[in-house]
Amino acid sequence: MLLDTPINELPRTSARTIQRLQALEIHTYYDLLHYYPSRHDDRSLASPIGSIQAGEKVTISGTIQSLKNNFTKRGFKIQTAKLADDSGSINLVWYNQMYLMRTLQEGMKLAVYGEVEQFGKIKQMKPQEYEIVSDEGERIHTGRLVPIYALTYGISTKTIREKIFWILQNLKEEIDGSEYLPTTILKYAKIIEEPEAIRSIHFPKTSGHMTQAYNRLAFDELFIRLLASRKVKEQWDTQVVSKKFKVTSFESDINTFKKGLPFKLTDAQQRVIDEITKDLQSKKPMNRFLQGDVGSGKTVVAAIAAYIAKLNGMQTLIMAPTEILAQQHYQTLSALFDKTDVTVALHTRSHRTLVDSKGKNAHYDIIVGTQALITKSIAMDHVGLVVIDEQHRFGVKQRAMLKEKGSNPHLLTMTATPIPRTVALTLYSELDLSTIDEMPKGRKLIKTYVINKEKRNDCYVWIQKQIQKHKDQVYVVYPLIDESESETMKTVKAAAKEFEELTKIFKTESVALLHGKIKSKDKETIMGKFKDQTHDILVATSVVEVGVDVRNATIMLIEGAERFGLAQLHQLRGRVGRGDKQSYCFLFTSDGKKSHSRLSYFAKTHNGMKLSEFDLKIRGAGNMYGTEQHGYTDLKLADITNATEVQRAQASVDMFIKEYSITHGTHIKKLLDQYQTNQISRD
Ligand code: ADP
Ligand code: MG
Q1: In the structure, which protein residues have their CB atom closer than 6 angstroms to any atom of ligand 1?
Q2: Model confidence pLDDT, tens digit, residues 32-45
Q3: What's the whole-number mean pLDDT along residues 669-676?
Q4: Cα–Cα 20 to 30 A to 42, which of 114, 232, 292, 635?
């Protein structure tokens, strides 16, 4: 039996439990071992029954002397067992747990954990946990530090605990052989051995052991991630572009294009363009990661890179995560290149301008699209540059597949999610980093207010006035209601209800509704009507989150603001304030004081980097980069903001590579593969 045994082979486990485990992304024994507890309950205090004290939380064990079930007058069922050891006896009491009458028997050895109660002279206990024990067997649920697993999909923590315990016992040999690092590195990084760490993270002897286990497994996450990055980088370093770009000979075209822009580039934009230009002239393909706050002007930077590609006779592919955004890029780029001979096409599921009337692919210099670009049906013959906007929205596999549309094309990935530098270096160490750290001049700060229930109506009245007086336009954004990453019907329904209500409040204004379940064609129509100011108010689920650019929209109203991370709120707020009109952002909350400090920090802070650092501090790295928003689920324990830890893992990777090859040993190979598959399956 091996650790990669599928989880459905777990003995004595119901189909329902298996299903629920699978829903938790636990597919093998290995996955289950790496499903870590969220905390431990200290049940190690054990006493002879004769010496327990009232109020004490304690583990006791003994033999069941008698067992009975009583019915109360009100129809409750009470199960009572008398438990005795050499020092004395006590009554154990449960309510409505009839199955115990089948599970327990007189004469059985039982250990229980709970609080001791006293009524007059009589002591009793309502056990919080019980387990049937034998003299030789190790305890699982009582008398020790007991792991508590975040309860999900209805599997009890007790069940998970038992299954993990079973694997630890029955796959002992394989676990014993799971160390994959040389002793030199264990010593250098001051970490314990893998087998011990895996055991102690679940069933530690002391809290000290628990901490050591935690440190080791957190180290593993960083180590593998960094090693994987290094592997990608090494592969990347051997690649050569199909055609080296020239820039100097096209200097005048590029300058003419820049001069023709409707604005002057900021210093930061110019600096990043210089960095990109330098990369593009190399025979090694560029692999640059561009981050810039929302509204900092990343699109025009990508446009200039695409123009350089065009001047060199090469095509550019630009992939955006949503139809709306792809469409908008298409319009922006078409306008930017209006006076040039650059041709721009749009390719999404509903737009296939790429295919001409004869059904053949016409030649375009820039092809903008969604994931649909990845599909095989479109042949692109000489792709020299690939741009991926809002890159965190795509998985590794999608990015790789798009890149394969060319022969070692240059790659520019962009994101508006500000990532602290140390974090970026860990998460994307294989990439070169560029940052636009300056906003275009003349942008007004977006006035932001937290609005509680009582002020809601005043706020609507004020908004109505703004619309009537200044023709202002408004976004109303609705949060995802279910915890899942994608929009569910529940969210759509909630937004639709909100929409109904708003149409009643804003009787004279035109209100529209936009959500993910609307057909793309209709979405476009709605968006188009908002852009041309037919609609005054657009009620939307967070589909408007990324990149939408409607300059006349100046009011952003966010429902259930407490449900969003600050970085995400910042993205949403960035949808307004795109022109020179004063813009406003209203945060509607329903949880009163609870989220107030977080939201009022947001209201007075306009720097995306500061906000994401704050988020990181209070919500923890796991959350900020957590499953829903960012998908970096491989870091369950590691703290990417801890520079010392990251640096130690980095140095360990250096040591490791110096002595061995990157994929040294079957274990490392397996871990790297696993890492990559996990990344891909997350798409
Ligand atoms: P993001 O970085 O969020 O993708 P965009 O590229 O959509 O930002 O740019 C936001 C807005 O700012 C656009 O309307 C764009 O035309 C404008 N813009 C970009 N660069 C400048 C600049 N240097 N000066 C003034 N406006 C600019
Ligand atoms: Mg953008």
Answers
A1: 263-266, 269, 292, 294-300, 416, 440, 547, 549, 578
A2: 999 999 889 999 99
A3: 72
A4: 635
